[in-house]
Amino acid sequence: MPGGRERALRGRIKSVNSTKKITKAMELIAASRIVKAVSRISSARPYYREMSALAGELRASLPGYAPALMGGGTGPHVVIVVTADRGLCGSYNSAAIREYDRFAANSPVPVEVVGIGRKVETYFKYRKVETIRQFNNITQYPTVEQARAILNPLLKRFSAGELFGVTVISSRFYSIGVQRTERTRLLPMDLGGDTATVGPDFEAEPSIEGATDLVLGELVVAELFGLLLEAAAAEHAARQAAMKSATDNATSLVKTLTRVMNRVRQDAITTEITEIVGGAEALRQAARKKVGDER
Amino acid sequence: MSDAHEFELVIANPEGVVFEGPVVQLLLRSAGGDIAFLAGHGPYVGEVEVCLAVVQSADGTSGQVVVDGGVVRAGGNRVIVLAKDAELSSSIEQESLRRRRERYESRLQELDDVTAEAELRGLELRGALL
């Protein structure tokens, strides 16, 4: 019959094994979601590429025109912090929060915050940081309409010169093994290159200025949408890595616990045998003594 | 391009490419009114209104695409429509539209849901155009 310690170890092994099953399942789910998220990033690229090219073309054909989204305003700097709605994804959430803390500490102008994801909401509540808006349940499957809803009020304020800038703190997806938390400045927009020196060589409706403003507005929405897609892929990749590590740890723990349990069981058997042998020897000696006494 | 009357058309939204291929004509509504694009159209950039774009292929078949505004660029025998949202009308089912609308309307009554709001807007547009 197993001893108390052996029984406790057996229970612990069972518990670790069931945890391992859960972490393994979560690892597999995350792996399948990465594939879908990466495919969404690839699908979104043609639009962004064409929109960027068109924005550059329009910008290069408008001498002296300064689009509102490319100029700087005065006022607070809005930071959009993107985290997950759930944990169990390693340092994915804490890295974004740390980056926000660094940004807020070094910003020369007041900072306003837009939170995306429950994790950052919890953190801001705990730290008593006021957010101008909070969006939950969008990080797993972000859509362009959500990106538009997040940006529209900010675009209005920035165009009116009420904001210094808009920056996104999110995790960028470089590959399944590499994700980095980075700051991306959305506004003021920087298309690179010099201001135009030649006029347009195309017809535009309603006007080139109108088309430029429209294209820049859509480009910044597409940029945020792209960042949200990358953040979703990075979240799944981080979760997969965290769950793989947890599964590996559980495997190693089960191995160690099994070894300890076997040793405990062996010790118990050895003790029992020793006790039996000792008992038998004592009985034999007692019997021998009794026979000697009778003689 | 096999036919001299054809030009390359790309209709894309931020989620991906909705239509891509050689066509002979594209009809849509721009800021200045209805506009048709044929092969060899001059360089042009214009704002696209919410409309049902009609695409005609060389074999005489035509298709419709729901376009939720955006911008169109023509030049170099290529036309690209960068839409805020776009969907092939053949892929839209009325029954599915009705079910989705009901689901999002009930979600919107329960809470201030940005996703439900955005989805409803898209569904109303498709329902109105088709």
Biggest β-sheet of chain A: count, sense, barrel? 5 strands, mixed
Q: So what's the overall shape of chain A?
A: elongated
Number of domains of chain A: 1
**Biggest sheet of chain A: strands side by side, in what order?**
3-2-1-4-5
- N→C terminal distance of chain B: 32 Å
What proportion of the residues of chain A is helical, as a percent range? 55-70%
Poorly predicted tracts of residues of chain A: none
CATH architecture of the largest domain in chain B: Sandwich
Number of separate strands of chain B: 8
Mean pLDDT of chain A equals 91
H and E string of chain B: EEEEEEEEHH
Approximate helicity band of chain B: 25-40%
CATH superfamily of the largest domain in chain B: F0F1 ATP synthase delta/epsilon subunit, N-terminal
Q: Can you tell me the CATH class of chain A?
A: Alpha Beta
Can you identify the CATH superfamily of chain A? Answer: ATP synthase, F1 complex, gamma subunit
Strand content of chain B: over 45%
The CATH topology of the largest domain in chain B, please? Answer: ATP Synthase, domain 1
Global Rg of chain A: 32 Å
Query: Regarding CATH, which class of the largest domain in chain B?
Result: Mainly Beta
The CATH architecture designation of chain A is 3-Layer(aba) Sandwich
Total number of helices of chain A: 5
Chain-wise SSE layout:
The complex is a heterodimer of chains A (295) and B (130).
Chain A: H1 4-59, E1 77-82, H2 92-106, E2 111-116, H3 118-126, E3 131-135, H4 144-159, E4 165-173, E5 179-187, E6 203-205, H5 208-294
Parallel strand pairs in A: 1-2, 1-4, 2-3
Antiparallel strand pairs in A: 4-5
Helix pairs in contact in A: 1-5, 4-5
Chain B: E1 7-13, E2 16-23, E3 25-30, E4 33-37, E5 44-56, E6 62-75, E7 78-83, E8 86-88, H1 94-110, H2 114-129
Parallel strand pairs in B: 1-7
Antiparallel strand pairs in B: 1-2, 3-4, 3-5, 5-6, 6-7, 6-8
Helix pairs in contact in B: 1-2
Please characterize this protein's 3D structure.
The complex is a heterodimer of chains A (295) and B (130). Chain A is of the alpha/beta class and 295 residues long. Chain A is 62% helix and 13% strand. Chain A is elongated and about 130 Å long. Chain B has 130 residues and is α+β, with helices and mostly antiparallel strands. Helices cover 25% and strands 48% of the residues of chain B. Chain B contains 2 helices and 8 strands. In chain B, strands 1, 2, 3, 4, 5, 6, 7 and 8 form an 8-stranded mixed beta sheet that branches. In chain B, a hairpin with a 2-residue loop joins β6 and β7. The longest helix of chain B has 17 residues, at 94-110. The model of chain B has no long low-confidence stretch (mean pLDDT 84). The A-B interface holds A 40, 43-44, 46-48, 50-51, 54, 58, 135, 137-138, 143-150, 201-206, 208, 210-211, 214-215, 218, 221-222, 225 and B 10, 12-17, 30-32, 42-47, 70-71, 73, 75, 80, 82, 84-85, 114-115, 117-119, 121-122.
